């Protein structure tokens, strides 16, 4: 589906924690859609605003490539993408437009229950498993700590038990995953929630007016939710 310049395309999570609330929030802005057969693309009916249902981790890249105009994604995913780009000397391509007030969680360093946590210096020389190597590297540099980073795209919490890492750096929401894996939160490196991500500069074509209208409606809905 080539990007149409007279419609807005918003990427949201296909399944997982943010997908349904993201869709509900956009619906409360007066949007409605006709679903495609495979349910991956939703064609906007009340307004020319379409949805693309994807893996959350793919949303920053879709924005960067101009495949989507906006995305609803965790701040952690957006900032990780930016941190990895920055690490490779590449400039920012998108930014957080609005925090959306749902999907709250923390990116924490978590350590085995048996550890007595004494501070970041304790991580010196340790191996840290994470799906957020960019954010972790940035934080470690700020703390002037040198540690090994073990990149895992999922099941990070099991790494210490497997002897793959000493500690982890992962998202914590209820804390149940940590408890189930005999880990405990030690320090928070980022507070996250769902955000609307979008372009650095306003659109200069018809999408600019559409985007303004959508943001006005969104701000109205978010005010009501407070
Ligand atoms: C995150 C994180 C933990 C879990 C923590 O994964 O990686 O596994 O949530 O939540 P809790 O504190 O409420 O137990 P998530 O399921 O969001 O996504 P993922 O499949 O990409 O790991
Ligand atoms: Zn994910
Ligand atoms: Mg998980």
Automatic annotation (TrEMBL):
The protein's Enzyme Commission number: 2.4.2.17
Molecular function terms from GO: ATP binding; ATP phosphoribosyltransferase activity; magnesium ion binding
Location of the ATP phosphoribosyltransferase catalytic domain: 55-217
Signal peptide, first to last residue: none
Keyword presence, ATP-binding: yes
Compartments, record wording: Cytoplasm
Record's catalysed reaction(s): 1-(5-phospho-beta-D-ribosyl)-ATP + diphosphate = 5-phospho-alpha-D-ribose 1-diphosphate + ATP
GO biological process: L-histidine biosynthetic process
Function: Catalyzes the condensation of ATP and 5-phosphoribose 1-diphosphate to form N'-(5'-phosphoribosyl)-ATP (PR-ATP). Has a crucial role in the pathway because the rate of histidine biosynthesis seems to be controlled primarily by regulation of HisG enzymatic activity.
Annotated protein name in UniProt: ATP phosphoribosyltransferase
């Amino acid at each position: 589906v080539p990007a149409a310049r007279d419609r807005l395309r918003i990427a949201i999570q296909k399944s997982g924690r943010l997908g349904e609330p993201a869709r509900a929030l956009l619906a409360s802005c007066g949007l409605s859609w006709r679903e495609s057969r495979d349910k991956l693309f939703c064609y906007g009916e009340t307004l020319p605003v379409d949805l693309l249902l994807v893996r959350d981790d793919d949303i920053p890249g879709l924005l960067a490539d101009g495949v989507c105009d906006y995305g609803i994604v965790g701040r952690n995913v957006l900032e990780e993408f930016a941190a990895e780009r920055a690490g490779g000397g590449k400039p920012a391509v998108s930014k957080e437009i609005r925090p959306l007030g749902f999907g709250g969680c923390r990116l924490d360093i978590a350590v085995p229950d048996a550890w007595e946590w004494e501070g970041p210096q304790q991580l010196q020389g340790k191996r840290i498993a994470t799906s957020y190597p960019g954010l972790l590297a940035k934080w470690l540099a700020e703390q002037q700590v040198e540690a090994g980073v073990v990149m895992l795209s999922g099941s990070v919490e099991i790494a210490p038990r497997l002897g793959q890492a000493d500690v982890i750096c992962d998202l914590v929401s209820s804390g149940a995953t940590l408890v189930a894996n005999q880990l405990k939160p030690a320090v928070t490196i980022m507070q996250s929630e769902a955000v609307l991500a979008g372009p650095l500069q306003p659109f200069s074509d018809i999408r600019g007016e559409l985007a303004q209208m959508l943001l006005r409606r969104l701000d109205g809905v978010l005010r009501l939710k407070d």
